């Protein structure tokens, strides 16, 4: 007779092999594309145009990164992206946390309606909003400004952030508020001193996802920013790509791509466990 604690090997079916092969192919393709960009970014323009695509660079020209940073203004684009992405992420996460708490923890008559209004933002396509948004920012004198882009990004992230944080808050026991109320704490004090310290995984998830979304966003930056000095990295790389189409300076473009991708890869590699923990915890309870 076997005990209930026996560990038996899991049986694998043929479709598991197909899934693993498909995932492995996708992972290999992504890694190969990344390696190709790294290799090209270290070549000279003559090598890039005169050799086969997968030919390894004869000599690694790390000065391509310095040229991209200074001569191609990638450093200025990088600084704009850092300012806009961090500011929009902080603003969006703070507003989302304060909005999600009463929806998830304080019962009131229109609780579900308020949540549905926020979630409607996930279903509205950007094609419907960008013309009114452009005109609104123009009326507020925020067009072609970093502040206008920060407000747009922060608002754009609100629906998803609130959805995740509401799910996470609903997993916390109700006894927390009851104990705080016995000690004489109001809703604001309870949120700041009791609930907020427990929101670490959820806040980490929405913060990282919001930052990555803001860092890589292209369309709103293209529509709302016109001055080269205020362009973010995706928009700056687009300009470099257009310049490369009419010239031969391709290695600078690829070096700029690597400068854009590396911060994102480092952030996600270091904090991916926090993202997974926050999203799965929020999914345990509807």
From TrEMBL:
The places in or outside the cell where this protein is found are: Cell membrane
> Gene3D superfamilies from the entry?
MetI-like (1.10.3720.10)
> Keyword Membrane, does the record have it?
yes
Q: What is the predominant subcellular site recorded for this chain?
A: membrane
Which residues are in the ABC transmembrane type-1 domain?
78-271
Q: Does the keyword Isomerase apply?
A: no
Pfam families to which the protein is assigned, alphabetical: BPD_transp_1
Sorted UniProt keywords: Cell membrane, Membrane, Transmembrane, Transmembrane helix, Transport
Q: Which InterPro entries did the record assign?
A: BP-dep_ABC_trans_perm, MetI-like, MetI-like_sf
Which residues are listed as membrane-spanning? 17-38, 77-101, 113-135, 147-169, 190-212, 250-271
Q: How does it sit in the membrane?
A: Multi-pass membrane protein
UniProt feature coiled coil, ranges:
none
- PROSITE patterns this protein is in? ABC_TM1
**Where does the source fall among the domains of life?**
Bacteria
Q: Which PANTHER family match?
A: DIACETYLCHITOBIOSE UPTAKE SYSTEM PERMEASE PROTEIN NGCG, MALTOSE TRANSPORT SYSTEM PERMEASE-RELATED
**Which family does the entry's similarity section mention?**
Belongs to the binding-protein-dependent transport system permease family.
Q: What is this protein called?
A: Carbohydrate ABC transporter permease
Organism in which the protein naturally occurs: Kribbella yunnanensis
